[in-house]
From TrEMBL:
InterPro entries: Bact_solute-bd_prot1 (IPR050490), SBP (IPR006059). Signal peptide: none annotated. The chain crosses the membrane at residues 14-35. Keywords: Membrane, Transmembrane, Transmembrane helix. The keyword Membrane applies. This is TVG0210789 protein. It comes from Thermoplasma volcanium (strain ATCC 51530 / DSM 4299 / JCM 9571 / NBRC 15438 / GSS1).
């Protein structure tokens, strides 16, 4: 019996479908085979990196980034790494102004950016930073000190890889203090026990040495908007947190508009600048001019940061001082009246972060780049004298075991021990998104005291008013009684992992140095 045409058509359709499926399978299989086994063009990816050029040149940053990731780049020939500045920023404040502009658009935003760790909360709240937990294995995070990692972690989510920690202290010119009679001629040690002793030392230098040397500056402490975060962090807060008060109440989640501690700190600024013991000129170029004047013997006392040695005075730095400890002494910043715990230091540092607008398909690759950039060896490298972040300490727990670690340390074991010991007095900037606004208000009020002669009471009321405008009245409160700031470390806890690590780290380095001397 012959088949009808209606029976033949369905069979032809079935065979057509089978042929199509077979062809598609062959094509797909060929593509998979091509990309998995044969040489082929790879998608080109560009990773742009931003970092501050006010402390190092663009060439220095390019050299560091390329040297630090040389092996990684060799393994990823399809990736182009480009340093983009931002150029033209002469201070930390200008760096963030330019970085804010870059990150306002995905077309200009850097893939990876270096940020002062206090900025993490602000950028995270603005959606700029990418969470890293899914892209970086836990062992990498576990090798970073909690005190550093915590400054780039919000709600258990890591938004950056810390590259450096630093602290603040007092440097002094030994010869000048001897000549002024602040310390005996046969002594090199000066440790003020309260703020009054700092002021009295500056007054004594001013009355005995300045008449014969008008260019000599008794004291430096940074102030004003021109000093940016050097004014707030290195200067003002280094004193404020030694009063028993801080900037922020972590219980009520509000900023302090009024407090005795703020008034005491305003009074310090009023005294030293009002009586000509300090000059605003050094705040125009924070760290650099102070470093030069200490080298030249034109500055007697400098309230500054631990990074100054590597950044300014070490061999190969901008203003090297030979036999450093013979001429320059170091002291802890005392609390207001010498009350417990006796001293304070502000702990900060920098870390690498990823732009959240980075394509999802590229984030694992960028995270891999960041791990290479921030590995233990590169943390040491970036903090070495003459390098981009010279003068800081690595945040990796295993840094002490690295053979290059000894390159970080000054050639004076006693200085190593000093930097270790002051960490137990450390305070931290509040990791709150509005901190940069509060910092700017502080800078403004400092400027009003120094340049416009504001009284302490006028400075206090102005600060409260500007703070209220900056963060909103509902986020401001007054402090009636003293309190212990939440971000001051327990100074009695000598068992803390950070302290013990750094102690062993410095002792190991010091012993290594001594063994080289006596071997």
């Amino acid at each position: 019996m012959e088949s009808s045409s209606s029976d033949i058509k369905p069979k032809r359709k079935i065979w057509s479908y089978i042929v199509i499926v077979v062809v598609l399978a062959a094509v797909i299989g060929g593509v998979v085979y091509y990309y998995s086994t044969l040489p082929h063009p790879t998608k080109q990816v560009t990773i742009t990196v931003a970092a501050p050029v006010y402390s190092s040149s663009a060439t220095d940053w390019e050299n560091f980034i390329n040297n630090a990731t040389k092996s990684w780049q060799a393994e990823h020939p399809n990736v182009k790494v480009e340093f983009i500045g931002p150029l033209g920023a002469s201070s930390e404040g200008q760096y963030y102004t330019k970085l804010d502009l870059l990150t306002s658009s995905s077309s200009t935003a850097p893939t990876v950016m270096l940020e002062d760790m206090f900025y993490t909360a602000t950028y995270q709240s603005e959606g700029i930073l990418a969470p890293l937990n899914s892209y970086i294995n836990s062992s990498f995070f576990n090798n970073i000190f909690p005190s550093a990692l915590g400054q780039m972690t919000i709600g258990g989510i890591h938004y950056g890889l810390p590259a450096q920690v630093t602290d603040t202290l007092i440097y002094y010119n030994i010869t000048l203090l001897q000549k002024a009679g602040v310390i005996p001629s046969d002594s090199t040690t000066w440790q003020p026990t309260n703020w009054t002793e700092i002021i009295n030392a500056a007054k004594q230098i001013n009355s005995t040495l300045v008449p014969n040397d008008p260019g000599l500056i008794p004291l430096n402490i940074y102030e004003g908007v021109k000093g940016d975060e050097a004014s707030s962090f290195t200067g003002f807060e280094g004193l404020l947190y030694g009063t028993g008060y801080g900037l922020y109440n972590f219980t009520d989640h509000k900023w302090y508009g009024y407090s005795p501690g703020l008034n005491e700190t305003f009074e310090f600024y009023k005294t030293v600048f009002g009586e000509g013991l300090a000059t605003p000129a050094l705040s125009a170029t924070p760290y650099i001019t102070a470093g030069q004047y200490m080298q030249e013997g034109k500055l007697a006392i400098d309230i500054d940061g631990s990074w100054m040695y590597g950044y300014q005075w070490a061999p190969g730095a901008q203003h090297p001082i030979s036999n450093f400890s013979k001429y320059i002494g170091v002291a802890k910043i005392p609390t207001y009246s010498g009350q417990a715990p006796g001293f304070n230091t502000m702990v900060g540092g920098w870390g690498w972060a990823m732009y959240n607008g980075t394509p999802s398909s590229e984030k694992p690759l960028v995270a891999s780049f960041m791990m290479a950039l921030d590995n233990t060896s590169n943390q040491i490298l970036i903090n070495e004298p003459g390098q981009a972040l010279a003068g800081g300490l690595p945040t990796a727990k295993n840094a002490v075991n690295n053979p290059n670690f000894s390159k970080l340390m000054p050639t004076d074991p006693s200085l190593d021990t000093f930097f270790t010991n002051i960490l137990k007095y450390g305070s931290y900037r509040p990791p709150v998104a509005t901190y940069p606004k509060v910092s700017y208000v502080l800078q403004e009020v400092m400027g009003y005291i120094v340049s416009d002669g504001y009284s302490v009471s006028k400075a206090a009321s102005t600060y409260n008013s500007l703070l209220t405008s900056a963060v909103g009245a509902s986020n401001v409160m007054s402090a009636i009684t003293s309190y212990t700031p939440s971000f001051i470390a327990d100074h009695r806890n000598f068992e803390s992992s950070q302290y013990n690590y750094l102690l062993s780290l410095y002792l190991n380095t010091s012993l290594l140095f001594l063994s080289q001397i006596f071997w």
